[in-house]
UniProtKB/TrEMBL annotation, chain A:
InterPro entries the UniProt entry points to: CAP_dom, CAP_sf
Organism this protein belongs to: Candidatus Woesebacteria bacterium GW2011_GWB1_39_10
TM spans (from-to): 23-43, 262-281, 293-313
Organism domain of life: Bacteria
Pfam families (alphabetical): CAP (PF00188)
Domain SCP: 67-172
Keyword vocabulary terms for this entry: Membrane, Transmembrane, Transmembrane helix
Protein known as: SCP domain-containing protein
Length: 316, 74
């Protein structure tokens, strides 16, 4: 009985709630907003207290990413890019480096450029490019996200690239289990073939290699070979520390999905309350001071539509 | 009609530019501010603008913006 009275007070316009459901009062809306902010803070604190609880489950294969990339190129009248083992290894190394050092960027905190991974695995490039993605659950969403971004799309549809390497690594980044996709594009320098991995490692031990080209921008390739710059000692490629074996199946909470579900529930509840409000007010012909209920329904309905469409995943 | 335009622009900005987080943040803020502004102007024209009305639009806009931010800032 008390519960019914409480619900009545919360949703039904009445004298006791000033002719507007209590949940629709500015004070209640503010409390809901504060609750949502608190929930986000909790999600950020969670990883420190209980690691390996938050994460994004994914099923992404490098082959699928390459297939989808070539499908996009074919659809735009371009030749396909061929998978290069050296680039695969380089992309995997970059992914592992990001997890090991805990960064989400093209350049590592210690200044390591993506191009150094190319060179470390013996790939002398004329053109090079990199796309990164994380938190996607499948390859299709990741490729679509890249295609929807002008600079990343430019990389995928660049006719100068001939070869591709994909690295997919799963691990913990900033306290959240995730899947990182590294997409390397390249065009070998001149006619010199890419050096096989074993040979490159051997050379790296004793020879000072000169980088063939210094890319100017991250997301766009260098357009022409530049003069050889000062010799750079290429360190022997050492195996990067592997991220501790992660079991994605043990992840319980996806931060994005949790937030999305909670937000959808809150908005659903508010839209229901607004609908009840507008029906009761019109039936009883109650005059009151307040905003336009239909306008609130339209605004919150738009927010709900946006959050239902938004998908998890980031690209840089 | 103006409100529909504001909401459609907000919806388009948030969904079509999902790859540009900064732009999404700007669109979310702009939509919230535009909504409150629309409410003020609408009620002023209808001569029923009160402080409680302003607070109501502000609370709804803040709630909507917080929800959007909680997702795009993940």
């Amino acid at each position: 009985m008390q519960l019914l009275r409480f619900l009545h007070h919360l949703f039904i316009p009445h004298e006791s709630n000033n002719q507007k459901g209590k949940i629709l009062h500015p004070s209640s809306l503010t409390i809901i907003a504060v609750f949502l902010v608190g929930f986000q803070l909790l999600l950020n604190v969670f990883p420190r207290g209980l690691p390996r609880v938050l994460g994004y489950a994914a099923n992404i294969s490098p082959g699928e990413v390459i297939r989808l990339t070539n499908a996009q190129r074919a659809a735009n009248g371009l030749s396909t890019v061929t998978e290069n083992a050296n680039l695969d290894s380089a992309a995997l190394a970059k992914g592992n480096d990001m997890l090991a050092k805990g960064y989400w960027a093209h350049f590592a905190p210690d200044g390591t450029s993506p191009w150094s991974f190319f060179l470390s695995f013996g790939y002398k490039y004329q053109y090079a490019g990199e796309n990164l993605a994380r938190d996607f659950s499948n390859a299709n969403d990741a490729v679509n996200a890249w295609m929807n971004s002008p600079t990343h799309r430019e990389n995928i549809l660049n006719s100068k690239y001939k070869e591709i390497g994909i690295g997919v690594v799963e691990g913990n980044l900033a306290g959240v289990d995730t899947t990182v996709i590294v997409q390397f594009f390249g065009a070998p320098l001149g006619n010199s073939p890419s050096i096989p991995i074993a040979q490159a490692q051997e050379q790296g031990k004793s020879v000072a290699l000169k980088p063939s080209i210094a890319p100017k921008k991250l997301a766009t390739p260098s357009l022409s070979p530049e003069p050889t710059i000062a010799p750079v000692i290429i360190r022997t490629p050492t195996p990067l520390p592997q991220a501790s074996p992660q079991s994605i199946s043990s992840v319980f909470i996806s931060p994005f999905s949790s937030t999305k579900n909670l937000s959808s529930a809150v908005l659903g509840l508010l839209l229901m309350a607004l609908s009840i409000d507008i029906i009761v007010i019109r039936r009883k012909r109650i005059a009151r001071i307040g905003g336009r209920t239909l306008a609130h329904i339209a605004f919150l309905g738009m927010i709900l539509a946006v959050i239902l469409i938004l998908k998890a995943g980031q690209i840089i | 009609m103006l409100l529909i335009g504001i909401l459609l622009a907000g919806f388009a900005g948030l969904t079509l530019f999902s790859y540009d987080r900064n732009f999404q943040i700007a669109v979310a803020l702009a939509t919230g501010i535009s909504y409150v502004s629309w409410g003020l102007i609408h009620h002023h024209i209808h001569r029923d603008l009160h402080f409680e009305v302003f607070m109501e639009y502000l609370a709804v806009a803040i709630l909507g913006t917080v929800i959007i931010f909680s997702l795009i800032l993940q």
